[in-house]
UniProtKB/TrEMBL annotation:
Pfam families: Abhydrolase_1. One of its GO terms (molecular function) is hydrolase activity. Residues 23-248 form the AB hydrolase-1 domain. Keywords: Hydrolase. PANTHER family: AB HYDROLASE-1 DOMAIN-CONTAINING PROTEIN, HYDROLASE, ALPHA/BETA FOLD FAMILY PROTEIN. This is Alpha/beta hydrolase. InterPro entries: AB_hydrolase, AB_hydrolase_1, AB_hydrolase_fold. The lineage of its organism: Bacteria, Bacillati, Actinomycetota, Actinomycetes, Kitasatosporales.
Length: 269
């Protein structure tokens, strides 16, 4: 079961699982800690995993000030300190990977390694046009179900739409008792659109693995390749047949890959 943790004055909903080296899981746009369920279940025999709701998502309220990626990175740092975690392996997907980049740049002592999935360093015209449509969609969709069905076209593979996986995710999201408001969705989205670490990425000095889905149309592999090329020594890998959220669609594949990476980092001390 999760709990509320006060971190630098913000009440953050946290779920922790397992024992071992510390891992902090940072979710993306609109997603609560439950987005990482397959990792909480599949990796807790080897790691102490912490997942949490970013401000404006799930059970973590957003204070009155505007949401920024830097502020959410500071939230993550404050959470680690509140939990007495001296440093952790950081894994973020999509907008959560933006937060992870800022965390490594703003609070380098707290970061042992980075896993950046479906990541971007700087929005381009395509990304801005796509997310601009999402802003309109969350306001104008005829129902929450219709909004999710449209939004998930960018997120999951054709096979997930065909085999019922997307239908299951839609039902789970609709049943979640802490839905994100349209205003909070747009606030997070605006912060992610404004994210820009491109020129600062060479300052990241920890081992980094960048993962991209071959079929990802929201953050195509070219974005991840650019991030990896800017971070010294970063590894870049395209996952064949995967889209924006491989950690949900193919958790065994994802868990094995990040486990191998973290084991390498641990072995190097």
């Amino acid at each position: 079961m999760g709990e509320m943790i006060t971190a630098d004055g913000v009440e953050i909903w946290v779920e922790r699982r397992g024992e071992g080296p510390d891992v902090l899981l940072i979710a993306g746009l609109g997603d609560p800690a439950e987005a990482w369920q397959a990792q909480l279940d599949g990796l807790s025999d080897r790691y102490r995993l912490t997942a949490f709701d970013n401000r404006g998502a799930g059970r973590t309220r957003s204070p009155e000030e505007s949401v920024t990626v830097a502020r959410m990175a500071d939230d993550a740092a404050a959470l680690l300190r509140a939990l007495d975690v001296p440093a952790a392996h950081i894994a973020g997907f999509s907008g959560g990977s933006f937060i992870a980049q800022e965390l490594a740049l703003r609070h380098p002592g707290l970061v042992r390694s980075l896993v950046l999935t479906s990541t971007v360093a700087r929005a381009d015209a395509y990304f801005r046009a796509m997310t601009g449509f999402w802003r309109w969609m969350v306001e104008s969709a005829p129902s929450e179900r219709a909004m999710l069905e449209a939004f998930y076209l960018w997120i999951y593979t054709p096979r997930a739409h065909a085999d019922g996986t997307v239908d299951r995710f839609v039902e789970e999201t609709l049943a979640f008792p802490h839905p994100q408001s349209a205003e909070a969705f747009q606030g997070q989205l605006a912060s992610f659109i404004g994210h820009d670490t491109l020129d600062r990425l060479p300052g990241i000095a920890v081992p980094t693995l960048v993962l991209a889905g071959e079929l990802d149309i929201a953050t195509p592999p070219r974005f991840g390749r650019e991030v990896a090329e800017r971070i010294p020594g970063a590894e870049f890998e395209v996952l064949p047949g995967e889209a924006h959220q491989p950690f949900q669609e193919s958790p065994d594949l994802f868990n094995a890959r990040v486990d191998a990476f973290w084991r390498q980092v641990e072995a190097r001390g």
